[in-house]
Amino acid sequence: EQDNQSRYSKIGGGYAKSVVMLLITSVAWAHIGSIDTVGGTTYDWGLNGPARRMICNSPEHGIHVLWMYSVSTQTTFPDRNMRYNFYDYSTRRWNWIAPDPMGSGVNAFTERCGYGTIDPDPNTGQAIVSCHTGSPLSPCLGRDMVPGGGVFEYCIGPDTYLWPYIAVGSNGWIHAAMTDNSTRNQVWYSRCTTWCYWEPPIRISGIGAPDPVWPDQNIAASKVGLSVGSTWMHCAGQGPDTGYFRESTDGGTFWLPAVTLPPPPAYGGDTIPSFHITSLFPYYDRQERLHIVADVMPYIGGQGYIIPAQIWHWCRDNEPHWS
């Protein structure tokens, strides 16, 4: 894992209804293989597309964990929020653990919200949490006052954008890949180079590559340089779905042309591989190389199937690129 994976983030996947569990397997300060229940929720639609970054490591501070939270059983989930917990390396404990997992953790926001991600500032260890909230729907950032403190200050983003996936770069800039609320099928990018100043969003899909047609955008930022990468896939609905990515080498000021991500050599025979709406997950390693993890589905006789799914890893610096 250390060869390819950034030490600052790990892939955040789905979680089961009513309880969230974190399996710690690669942290020197914790017991290898121990399982800690860090929170619970009644909300079981935690992901709307690809895996979001929901667990991160700040090497000098601790582990940040985020999940979509509710204790309501109503179908509207009026108390929905982004819930946060923190494993403190200095105390070797989780900061908010209750006898009932539904009481563990703290809400990151004060109003109903959802569909956010987490990424700590690599310089300070402070958690940066995103969500969309309000009317009209807008992205919002929450910044923990101190690493693991659980007291957040807030910054509302531009109106009519939602599903903000965020990544924090080596210089502390916050990068966001969002969907516009009017069409809900485009990828828009904005950044905060200083706290609470959102730059005007720019559209990065639909130029040299089709729009996703689904909120399956994702974003990653290097922790050792200025590279930023955004991924998405085009949900054609009439055949195998294709993947794309765009990169910036200067922290999001200028973006290189979109690149088509060729599918991996999955399945074989007359089965055609297709990316799924749960793809794609990008990250940068310690050498500032872009990696993409993809969920791949089979297309047989013109029909797509969700099983058997395969997980593939891509890096253009590897040979072969896919594994």
Keywords:
6-stranded antiparallel sheet, globular, 323 residues, 5-stranded antiparallel sheet, disordered N terminus, 26 strands, mainly beta
Gist of the model:
The chain is mainly β. Helices cover 0% and strands 40% of the residues. The strands form six sheets. Strands 1, 4, 5, 6, 7 and 8 form a six-stranded antiparallel beta sheet that branches.
Explain how this protein is built:
The structure is a single chain. The chain is mainly β and about 325 residues long. It is built from no helices and 26 strands. The chain has strands spanning about 10, 20-25, 35-40, 55-60, 60-70, 80-90, 95, 105, 115, 120, 125-135, 140-145, 150-155, 160-170, 175-180, 190, 200-205, 220, 230-235, 240-250, 260, 270-275, 280-285, 290-300, 305, 310-315. Strand 11 (about 125-135) and strand 12 (about 140-145) form a beta hairpin. It is globular, with a radius of gyration of 19 Å.
Helix and strand topology:
Blueprint: E1 9-10, E2 20-23, E3 35-39, E4 55-58, E5 62-69, E6 81-88, E7 93-94, E8 106-107, E9 113-114, E10 118-120, E11 127-133, E12 138-144, E13 152-156, E14 161-168, E15 174-180, E16 188-192, E17 202-203, E18 218-221, E19 228-234, E20 242-248, E21 259-261, E22 272-275, E23 281-284, E24 290-300, E25 303-304, E26 310-315
Antiparallel strand pairs: 1-4, 2-3, 4-5, 5-6, 6-7, 6-8, 9-11, 10-11, 11-12, 12-13, 14-15, 15-16, 16-17, 18-19, 19-20, 20-21, 22-24, 23-24, 24-25, 24-26
Ranges with pLDDT <50 over ≥5 residues?
Answer: 1-29
Beta-strand content estimate: 35-45%
Radius of gyration: 19 Å
Proportion of residues in helical segments = under 10%
Q: What's the order of the H and E elements? A: EEEEEEEEEEEEEEEEEEEEEEEEEE
First-last Cα distance? 14 Å
Number of contiguous helices: 0
| Biggest β-sheet strands, sense, barrel | 6 strands, antiparallel
Average per-residue pLDDT, rounded, comes to 90
**What best-fitting shape do the alpha-carbon axes yield?**
globular
Sheet/helix structural class: mainly beta
